[in-house]
Amino acid sequence: MTVAVVRFGGSNCDRDAVRALEHIGVDADIVWHEDGLPADVDGVVLPGGFSYGDYLRAGAMAAHSPIMDEVRDLAENGVPVLGVCNGAQIGCEASMTPGAFTTNASARFQCEHVTVRVERADTPWTAAYDEGDVVTLPIAHGEGRFEIGEDRYDDLVAEDRILFRYCDEDGNVTDDANPNGSRGNVAGILGERDTVAVLMPHPERATLPELGLTDGQGVLTAFA
């Protein structure tokens, strides 16, 4: 499989994503957003960073880049697409997933390790885990609070589209374990197809053994 890691002006996790994917045996290349996607792409990563300097809202301008029309077309055809951190914000702004990521409840940039609970283990992104597993991943965001209307949140729950929730080390979903105030402790959700996912924590930063944490490998094996 060849994965395109889309680079926007301000992306800063694109090379991290390529290195992590290559570590698990997946071919990956950085694609500049103005150049469009290659014809032979089998997967797409929208990486973290600060696309367009988070001007207007995080991810808002990148969501209107012409390459996102191509990304949406691939997603509608079942090609796996993963948005991480700023990529998650772009994915929501591009209406690939519902809701929005807004300013953290603390109004501060949060950079730390968190624990998240696997809510579903029957998706490409979580097939390497068991339901209820607790996974440690890094976060680094100022606008990571997932917000969505109450009715639409209820729909997400009913449709079983919540992928990860922030939790404590024992898997308990609590207010104290929520680093940014996300509704329902949501850390990651699915699109209309389970081949599309966005999440605020960084699996690519928890993949290389030399960095001391490998819990994120399971997410990226969706591309393997």
From TrEMBL:
<dbReference type="InterPro" id="IPR029062">
    <property type="entry name" value="Class_I_gatase-like"/>
</dbReference>
<dbReference type="Pfam" id="PF13507">
    <property type="entry name" value="GATase_5"/>
</dbReference>
<keyword id="KW-0378">Hydrolase</keyword>
<keyword id="KW-0436">Ligase</keyword>
<comment type="subunit">
    <text>Part of the FGAM synthase complex composed of 1 PurL, 1 PurQ and 2 PurS subunits.</text>
</comment>
<dbReference type="GO" id="GO:0004359">
    <property type="term" value="F:glutaminase activity"/>
</dbReference>
<feature type="active site">
    <location>
        <position position="204"/>
    </location>
</feature>
<feature type="active site">
    <location>
        <position position="202"/>
    </location>
</feature>
<keyword id="KW-0547">Nucleotide-binding</keyword>
<keyword id="KW-0067">ATP-binding</keyword>
<comment type="function">
    <text>Part of the phosphoribosylformylglycinamidine synthase complex involved in the purines biosynthetic pathway. Catalyzes the ATP-dependent conversion of formylglycinamide ribonucleotide (FGAR) and glutamine to yield formylglycinamidine ribonucleotide (FGAM) and glutamate. The FGAM synthase complex is composed of three subunits. PurQ produces an ammonia molecule by converting glutamine to glutamate. PurL transfers the ammonia molecule to FGAR to form FGAM in an ATP-dependent manner.</text>
</comment>
<protein>
    <recommendedName>
        <fullName>Phosphoribosylformylglycinamidine synthase subunit PurQ</fullName>
        <ecNumber>6.3.5.3</ecNumber>
        <ecNumber>3.5.1.2</ecNumber>
    </recommendedName>
</protein>
<feature type="active site" description="Nucleophile">
    <location>
        <position position="85"/>
    </location>
</feature>
<dbReference type="InterPro" id="IPR010075">
    <property type="entry name" value="PRibForGlyAmidine_synth_PurQ"/>
</dbReference>
<keyword id="KW-0658">Purine biosynthesis</keyword>
<dbReference type="GO" id="GO:0006189">
    <property type="term" value="P:'de novo' IMP biosynthetic process"/>
</dbReference>
<keyword id="KW-0963">Cytoplasm</keyword>
<dbReference type="GO" id="GO:0005737">
    <property type="term" value="C:cytoplasm"/>
</dbReference>
<keyword id="KW-0315">Glutamine amidotransferase</keyword>
<dbReference type="GO" id="GO:0005524">
    <property type="term" value="F:ATP binding"/>
</dbReference>
<comment type="pathway">
    <text>Purine metabolism; IMP biosynthesis via de novo pathway; 5-amino-1-(5-phospho-D-ribosyl)imidazole from N(2)-formyl-N(1)-(5-phospho-D-ribosyl)glycinamide: step 1/2.</text>
</comment>
<dbReference type="GO" id="GO:0004642">
    <property type="term" value="F:phosphoribosylformylglycinamidine synthase activity"/>
</dbReference>
